[in-house]
Structure formats: C-alpha cells, structure tokens
Amino acid sequence: MFFTLFLLTGYLVIGQTVQITGTVTNAEDGLVVPGVTVTVKGTTVGTITDVSGRYSISVPSGSSTLVFSYVGMKRTEVVIAGRTVVNVTMESDYLAMDEVVVLGYATRGKNELTGSTIQLSGDKLRSVPVVSVDQTLQGKVAGVNISSSSGTPGSIQDIRIRGVGSITGSNDPLIIIDGAPVINKDLSGDGDASSTLSPLTALNSNDIESITVLKDASATAAYGARGSNGVIVITTKKGKQGKTNFDVSASTGFQNNAVAGRVPLNGAQREELFLEAVYNTHGANYGFTKEEAYDFATENGLDFGDLLNWDRSEPDWPSVVTNKNAPVTNVSISASGGDDISSFYASLGYSKTEATTIVSDFKRLTGSLNYTRKFSNNVRFGINTNVSNTFQNAYLEQSAYFANPNLTKYFMSPWYRAYNEDGSPNLNLYGLFHPVYLAENDINTNDFTRAIVSSYLEWDIIKDLKFRTFVSMDYNLVNYKQYQNRKHGDASEENGYSYSSANRNYNTVYQNSLDYTIRFSDHNISLKALMEFQKNKTWDLWGDGKNFPTDDLTNINSAGANFDAGSSFTDWSNLSYLGMANYNFKGKYIADFTFRREGSSLFAPDHRFGNFWSAGVAWNLNEESFIKNIEAISTLRLRASYGLSGSNGVNLNAYQELLTYDADYADQGAAYPSQYGNDLLTWEKNNTLDVGTDFGFLNDRITGSFSYFYKKTFDLLQNVPITRTSGFSSVPRNLGVVENKGVEAMLDVAIVRKSDFNWNVSFNIATVKNEVLELAKDAQGNDIMITSGQRRTAVGQPIYAWYTRGWAGVNPDNGLPQWYLNGTNDEGGVTSNYYASDIQLAFQGGSALPTRTGGFGTHFDFKGIFLDANFFFAGGHKVFEDWSFYTHHTGVYTLLYYNGVNDLMNRWQKPGDETDVPKVVYSGTASNASRPSTRFLYDGDYIRLKDIVLGYSLPSSIEQRIGFSDVTFFARGTNLWTWVKDKDLKYDPEVRADGYTRLTTPPVKSIVFGINLKF
Amino acid sequence: MRKLSIIILAIALLGITFSCTKDDLEPTLAQSKNILVSINTTEDLLTLLNGTYNRMTQASYYGRDLIIFNEVRSDNCFSNGNSGRFLTPAAMTLGNNEAYVTDTWSQIYAVIAEANLIIGATDIEGDEDEINHIKGQAYAIRALAHFDLLKLYGQQHVTGGDPTLGIPYVTVFKDDNLLPVRNTVAEVKTNINNDLIQALNLMDESLNNPSKQYITTYAVNALQARVAVYFKDWPAAKLACEAVINSDNYEIISPENFPKIWTQDGPVNSIFELAFSSIDNQNINGLQYIYRGENYGDIEALADLTDLFEADDVRGFSTGMLGIEGGSLLRNMGKYPSIDYSDEIFLIRYEEVVLMYAEALFEIDNNDPEALVWLNKVPAKRKATLYSEATKANIMLERRKELCFEGFRFDDLARTGSDIPLVAALKQTHGGPQYGSYKYAFPIPLAELNANSAMVQNYGYSSSK
Q1: What is the pTM of this model?
Q2: Mutate to test the interface with A, among B92, B280, B464 (most CBs of A within 10 A)
Q3: Mean model confidence pLDDT for chain A
Q4: ipTM value of the model?
Q5: Which residues, 6 or more positions from A579, have their beta carbon under 8 angstroms from its beta carbon?
Q6: Comparing C-alpha atoms, which of A812, A810, A819, A776 is closest to residue A795?
Q7: Are A947 and A974 a contacting pair, CB within 8 Å?
Q8: How many other C-beta atoms can be found within 10 angstroms of the C-beta atom of residue A664?
Q9: Subunit contact B465:A467, Cβ cutoff 8 A
C-alpha cells in the first residue's frame, strides 16, 4: 500500500506537474466550503472546490504557493512545501468590508480617516420597506436628521446634516451615486400642488453596497462648492471574483398611519356646538332659549339648510378616505460573480406600495448591470448601468385643495352623507368634492424613467502612476398627466380638463484624474489631481385642453377647446480642479490635504470661481508601542480637521436682472421684470472645525467615537426683504453669518460575542446648537430680520426661530381667548384682541430644528434566531400645527362651512369654566381665537421604535443539504411605536424641516414578512 | 524609451482632458433676457406695456380682489364663506398679515414698477410719436394704480389718526431709496393729476387703439374725471367729462344690448377694458367663480340692492342679469358670466362718465336743469322710471344700480362721507361702521413694515413686528 503510493508520488515529482488534493473548511464551524477558487500563484492554473469542499489541482513544477479565495472569506496563501495533500482552513472576512471607506473621490482605510465619516453597509438597508434609499438612513447616522415630506410613497425627504447653515439657499446635502454628483430635486410634474417625486426612488435598496455620509470639511472640501451641507455617497454593488452567486429577497406586508392624528367632530357633536353657538350669539338679541335654538337657526336659514336636511346618520368620513392595511411588496433577484479578468453584478427588482390614503400608490421596476473587465494587465474598465421605471399615483396633497382627501377628513361636514342609498358616492356636497368619486374618475400620475450609465477606464501608466477617466450620464424623464373629470370637481364647469407634461433632465459628468503614490521607508504619500466638468440640462413641455364630449377619454386629443401649451429650457454647469494629498507614516500618523477650485454658472461672471480647501490630521495611538502594550485598548485614534467648503444653493440665474417673457395680454406677448438681480452674487462659504476620537476596548468588544464640530457659515445667500413699493419682494445678497456647533457620540458594546450567541447594544447621539451671528442691515443700520409665517430669523436666535403671539388661555369669566401683551408672560397683562395695537410677538424658544437626535438599539442572535431593534429620538425643537385656524375655529368655519376637531367639545360654556378652548359663537371672526399663537406650538420631542426585526437563518448544515448558502426568514416592523412628549401634539411629530404639520399623507408604520435566499 | 513616450502620451492626454474653458460656464437664458440689454425698440416697449396690463389682470388686483373688496364692504353684497373667501374683508376686520392686505399692495406696486420701467427707458429706436403714446399710457397706468392704492390704504376717511397720510408715490424703477415714506394725500393727488396731464401730453388721438383694451386719450380724460369726483373737484370733473362726451366716440348701450355686452369685446360703451380670453384668464380665481356656483360662489347680493330694480329694468331679474341660485341665493348672474372665464373686465364705461357729469353739474349748481337731463340718460336706456329731480341721493342711487358688482360702491359711500349701511344684520358682518372708523382703510401689510422701517402703520391697526 505504502509502496504503491510512494511510486505514485514519485512519478508525479519526476514529471512536469504535481497533483495536489485537499479539502477546504470554514474556520468558524468546521464545515466544508464548496466553490472556493484554488489557483497556483504566478500561473493561470486553477480549479474550484466541489460540493464536499474537495479540490484536485495539477501544480507545475517550480510553483510553490497555492492561493485560495472565496467571497466573504479572507484570501489565504499556502506554501506547498512538498506536500501532496494540502488542507486549508479559511477565516471569514466580515471585517474586510468595514475596513474600507468610500469617500467618493478616494477610498481610505478606516484607520486613515481624519474626519467624521460614517459608512453604512447595504445589509442594514436592504429589506427596509421604504421606496427611496434616503429614507433608510433615518436614525442610523449621528448628526443626520431626515424628515419625510409626506407618507406618499416616492415623496422627497428633507435631509439635514449637522444643523442648518442656510437661510435662503438650499440646505440639502449633495448626493453622489457611483462617483457622479446627481440632481436631487423634486421631479414631479406638479410637485407644488400634488405629491412630490424623489429621483432617489429610482434606486433599489437591495442594489446598494454602502452609503457613506461625509460630515466634516476634510471629507466635504473635496466637493468644494457643494459640500457645505454634507455629502451622501452611494455605492452600488459590484461583482466579485468567484462562482456566480444568486441572491433573492422577497417581502410583503401592510402599512397604516403611524400616529392617528386628531379626530373630527361627528354629526351629533357638531349639532350640539352649532346650536350653542347660535344661542351664544343671537339668543339675547332675539329672545330665545337654548332649546329653541334649533328652530331659530333653521327658520332663519342660519344653517344654510344643512342641519334641517341632515338624516342623523354618521357618515364617518375619515374611514372613507383611509386605505387601511395598505399592502407593500418587494421582490429582488441578483446575480454576481467573476473571475480573474472580469466580474459582474446584475439585478432586477420590483416594488409595489399602496399609500394609507385612498388614490395613491406606487410601482417600480429596476434593473442594473455592473461589469468590470481587465483589458490588459494595466488597463481596467468598468461600467455601471441602472435603469428604472416608477409609476406614482399622486394626488393634490400639498395644500388645502378641495380635491385633497386629507382635507376631506377634517373639513367635510358630517351632516352630508358619504354614500347614497344605492351605494354610489353622494355628490351633493356644496363645495367640497367626494374623494372616492375623484379617486375613481380623476387622474394625477407621474411616470418616471431614469437611466444612469457610468463608465470608467483606469490605466496604470507606470508603477504607482494611474490615470483614470470617468463619464456618467443620467437621464430623468417624467411624464405627468392630470385629468379632472367633467361631472364633479375643479373642472366640472368647464366640462373636464386635461394637462400633460414631459419634464426631462439630463446630467453629464466627466472626470479625469491622475493618482501617484510615493513610497520610501515607512512613508506613504498618495497624490491625486482631478478635473471634473458637469453639465445639466432641463427641458419642459406641457399642454392642456378643456371641454370633453364624453367620459373615459382623458387625453388632450379628445378635448374640444381652450388649448394652451408651453415649453422651456434651462441649464447649468460646473467646472472644478481638485488636488488631494495623503501622507501616512507606518499607519500611525496620517495627514490629509485637499484643495479645490470650482466655477459655477449660477453666479455673476466675475464671481464664478471659488477656492476651497481642507487639512486634517490623525494619530493612531493603537499603533504606538506604549498603547500596544495595554491589552485592554484595541483601538485608539485622535483626529482633527479644518477646512473651507461652499454652497451654491441659489436659484438658477439669480444674479441676473431679468425680464421674463412667459406672459401675454390681448393675444400679444408680454414681458415683466421678474428678478431684481445682483451682479455680486457668489458662493456661500463655511469653515468647519472637527475634532474627535475613535476608541475600542477589550478586543473591540466596546467600540465608539466622539466628535466635536464647529461650523461657521458666512456670505450667506439671503433673500433680503425689500420694500414692496419697488415691485419686488426681495433681493438675493451674500450677507450674514450663522454658526452650528455640537457633539456626536457613538458607542457599541458587544455584551456577548460567541460563534452562535451574540448580543450587542449601541447608542448614538448628536447635538447641534444653531445661532445667527449677523444679518443684512438696512440704510439706517438696523438688522433686516426675515419673517415668514410664525418664524423669524434674527441675530442671537436660531434660523427661523418660532416668533408668534403668546397664548394666555381662556378667560374663565367670559370664555374669550387671551394673549399676553408682551408675548411671553402675564407681566404686561393680557388682551382678548388679537390685533390690539400694543400687542407684541415674541421668540418662543427654539426652532423647527431638533437640538438633539440619536438612537439606541440592540442586536441579539442565538443559533440562527436573530432580533434587531432600533429606536430613534429627536428633541429640543417645536412643531406648529398648520391649518389650526380652520380646524380649531370656534365659529362658523367649523360649525357651518366645514368641520372641526373634537377637541372643540372642551369649549368654555359658563363663567368659572377652566379650559383651553374658547366659547363657540356664530361668527366668522370668533375673536380670532384660532389664529396662530403658542396655542398651536408644541414641543416636538419624540421617541420612535424605528425598526424591529425578528428572523431565523437556517443552520449551515441544512442549508448545504438543500443547496443554499443562506436561507433567512424574517418579520420586520417599522415605526411600530411612537411616544410624543407633548400630549397636545396629536399629529405625527415627524414633519418637514420647516416645522409645520401638513395635510399630506402622514408617516406610516408597517409590518412585513420576508425571506432572503442566497445560493 | 518606451516608458518615456508613455509618460509623454499621458501628459498629452491630460492636457486635452483639462481643456474646458471658462466660457463653458455661461448659462443659457431661454425664457428671460437681461433687462440691461433688452429694451431697445418700440416693440420692446410695447411688450413691456403688455406686461403692465397683464399685471393689472391678476386676481389680487382687478382680476378679482379689488372689485370684491369694494362690493362686500358696502350694502351691495356679502360673503357667505362657502369657500372661506373674503370673510375678513366683508367683516372689515383685516389683520396686517393677511393675504388680502399683502398681495394687493404688492401687485399694485408691481404694476407701478413696470410702468416706471417704461417711463424711464431711454435711447429707444423707432417712431417718436409711437414711443410717446406708449409712455403716455404708462403714465396713466401709474396714476390709476396710485389712485387705487390711496383709496384702499390712505387715511383720508379715518378720524383718530393722521388723516393726511397717503401712500408712497414711486416714480423710478429700482430706486436707490429702499425706505420710502408715505406721501401726504395732497401730494399723491397732485402727482396723480400731473401724471394724467403728462399722459395727455404724450399721447396722440390718432394712435388710440380701437380695441379699447389699451388706454386711449379719452380713457385718460375719464380717469381725470374719476379722480376729480373723488376729491370733489367739480369744475375739473366737468371739463374732463366733456372731453369724453364731446368726442362722440361712445354711447350709452341700448337696453336690448345691455345683457349681451358682458361677453363681448369692445362694445360701444366701453372706454377702457382689461383683455381676457379663454386661454388667458384667472380661471377659478376670477370673478366668474366667486359670484356664483357651488364650489366658491362666496359673494351673494343683498336684497337691499336687488329690490331697487323695477320689474322691467334690464339690469334686474327680467333679463337674467340678477338671478336666484339654489333656491335662495341672490346672485349677480349677468356680469362676468362665462364658464370659461373669458369675459373682459370693463374698467371704464361711458355710463360712469355720464353719471359723473350729472353729479358735477349738480354740485356746481344744484338747480342746473342739465344735471337732471344727464342723470336721466341712463335709466332711459334701461327701461326704468325717469327721475323727477336731480338730487345727490338720486345720482348715487342711479350709480349704485348701474355700476353694481363692478367695484364702485365702497368708494361712493366713503367719498360722500356716508356710514356703511347695515341692511341685513344676519348676513353682513361688518356691523355698519360709521364714517371715520379706522375700518375705512386697509392696514399697511406687515411685510412692508418689516422691510421698510420708514413705513408707518394706519390708525387702529397693529404694527407689532
């Protein structure tokens, strides 16, 4: 037996090749690993392990090393050393992904960062049942505050990173997808009135490899003039070397409104209040009692006939407009694989979501293909394509339109039936519209197609010198259609109205760069020089027509009269030159320097170019010998950065004094001066200082970081209000200074860390204090404060601080509303006259920007069962209940024309009553009791259970038997529980960045069940 | 060697790719033009003039609001609040931050700004007479706009504050002074009259546009008369009216045609009208939608007005000019009727000039028989009983009947020193303020007070900033 073997191996040694066999196992559980690529180092000889983890390879004589590689495992090299059987144990590579951080233009190791940058891996984002990627970030990154503009699927999100720096300019961060800056504005054909549409809905969360949030100057200065509000870098998945892997995920579930909101009055309650109001106002003058009020009101037509004709049924309008348990479904399938020369990632995804308000729903189909290939040893090529089609059923939700079902809920009189005896919608609603009839007969849709193609070519010219060219094209097309039917609604008098528009936005980015690395002794210097040119073009075309001869034909072709059409074109461009240098000594001392010169077409010709720069340093203490000797400390880094970034968030062509020609009179063209102009208009700039530390103890069982930042924004773009006698309302100027400062802290503790039992908890918190330091001054040297609604920007206050009258409750003697004369407390007395000439408004503390946000959560897994829970909290801000003038009116707006909320039942009724709701009267003014004041300004603090996931992964042994590498079942709940500090705030506390509640679909909570398969 | 040539190639490649220039950063202006270089020819001036008229047609000015303000603050109409509109103007309890107050102020000043842009334009190529005719119209518009602002925001009818406070009179486009003060009522009146005289100096009768959609020399005369009547300047009113009457260009419309003119363009009794069409209108924000219908229809007529018309009067129910909707709502059905919102708005009609003439004659000499002759010319063409005597009351009555729903009533009450009559206590919500009440003026908008520290608020209104 032994003799035969010896002869066999001897034969192999004497010949040209040696046959080596062996088995590959997993270091963690000892199980075999099929599909591992085994290659002979320095040759093209290779094979793959079989289902039992076994391989057999012919190694040419002279070769000494085998290389084992597999996705998700550490690449292992083994010296053959004369053996014929080489068994290998491979370790999981779960740290590898975390060690590399994508910064957009550059990639750095985690321990090379000099600033505050957070990277989230795609695994945290997949299967979250939201349709746009930015929604998935909420609560996961310290210092990033995301609020949704509406619960309608596809709506844009307001993202604020480290506070608010701009008063008039945009506060939105820059979004980068696969290296190219992309537009991020509302693309809806009618976003001012109807639902908004975010371009990020075109991406499938399952295709995302990682999202990096750049917060401080050392990272954002590379983005120069657009990095001032932070940068979000999105990287899509790429292929990896190895056999083709498939990934399938599917989930389905249902959604409801996260917070119920107020409840409108029902018919009986409204009648009670109505008759009381009639009695309160006219009882004394006309000599009737409370019991006789009904007769007096109906005989004199004070009810417009509505109360008389009410059949005493309760129509329950809120449930007519609510879509309970709205279904949400997501399916994605992807494949990735590759070999030495090329790799690919392809995916297909389908998503369907219904909104919690009737009418609205959302469907999306996405497909992507990312491919890389080595043309030769020195030249690499890559292309990323992503095409999607999104269909959004929108509705008029941005304001109090009669066609808005959210308005119907609070404004529809409960004395009108919802349905007739035969079940058809009752259309006799005297002014408002029936939402179900409109949902069935009107059209309001966005059909959005997006194609992003980015490709690059990298050439290693000589050792350490690399040239890269990159081109990206992003085409967005939205076809919007609106049809108002002929019989009931806004167009009933004109026999129907149809509007269509095609909005196209085309964005191209060119980048060319050179990278050079210098290495000597332990010093590493990387240099990069890059040039970027971006051009963006927008075309709009619209048409409309009226007077339709029949139902069901809804395109303009079928209209009979009053045709109108228009088209327009706008563009902008950006040119920049960037230089970056990074110095690294032994991984211990790091220094970063960035310089960017950028020019933008948005500014006046002499002020187009700006220079932006940053410098950062980091010290990795854990590489120092005196720290290495301390066992308990596994990671300790100090870092600091300082730099100058800018913001160009001003309207297109704002610097020009313009005449606009889109008007007409008597069928002739007409022009009007549309813009005051300012030929000194230039960038907004900010200086940011960031210092922090990252630490890890006990072999990284406890990890965390702490940062302090100070951001000073100057040359603020302000629309300074000017006298309206000029014919304009404001002029854009660069004046003013704002500061934001705060701390961010994160802590992650792995309480238990074993192979089959893990439990860790994590916390993060961010604070921000916002203050205006300087504003524009008028000719007399007084600050020009900017007042808008109930908010005012003034020196010493945060931007758009709440500034309104102070509510002093209801006078218990007479039931009249009261306000503080000095706006804050009763030291100056109170008045019941809202417009008294000596009444003052005052700052009420805080603004709509939360001063503290954060989250805490836990992860628990045991033998395949796992549980994740994450809470999000925000506080220190105030929220204003918009439309409260109507919904809390103690007069005819609620009791006669429309409807009100059932909080009105707590009204004052007789002297001595202590309550916050004044007396009801039959009047349109009602003493202005429901006009804006602190009565409707609430503390916005809240805590929300953002995510809770319970799941089970089949054990590897069973998975392998059925041929899968991962089978996971899960149930996921989003926004399931919300706690609001202010008991008077009954609406969802998550509002848009301006702090007002709205009549849009509120945020939703959902429960989905799903499965992930990998094979 | 090969390495060197590769490096050279690389550098050359870089050079090409870095070759974008500054000029690539010039944005495209496709819907607008830079003001500084775009006003060069007569045609450019005419385009600006069209823009000025277009600004007058907006809902916050003559497109709806100004006319309705003057109808609800009176005994003609009230707001039933069906869509929540015009409740505070009807109650005459406006807050300084309401849209009614701010938007109308801003829109009228926007009209003035564009008129000033035309007036101040220099170095225009083209026929000088045509250029002057355009500039003359701009002067007239400027005068009319300031007149409307004064009637709405001035303190001339309010006791308790400073009754000489008028409104800022602006004569330069993009003036350097961004803190204008309020001119006195007397200064505003003088400036208005000077502007109207300048308009007549520049305009040429032969260039008057026959469509009536542009201001003509006779329209300027009619405006002079209107201003003179408001300020009780009767001899000037008489002269101005005669200029219009003696032109023989206009007639009082016949009774058969009275109901029809409201859907026509340029009838014989129109002196100046604002142009609207089926695709250029204020849509649901116009007069048609607010005067009737279920969706808005907030403005209803009062019985006190509709009872004035005799059975055969062509302005009443018999021809459908007045009507009843929904069984009980009294409505203006005939003026601004079209469901496609395309009707013209007649700013100046010949009938108004006739009645102003009668009033001027009466005021100069109470016994002048011509006053009665002219007063009766209107009812004669309306199948209404003629008057036996020319009295102030009869003249105001005939004005009320002829010009109802067109935005004249409040000014007629204010200029004659009348209280606002309370004729239907359950429908009118202003409580019938007495003449001199602070409610006779709108408040200065808070936005203006915030941006202009030299602006002073009207008596009785809050200046809290």
Answers
A1: 0.80
A2: B464
A3: 87
A4: 0.89
A5: A527, A528, A529, A530, A594, A595, A596
A6: A776
A7: yes
A8: 18
A9: no
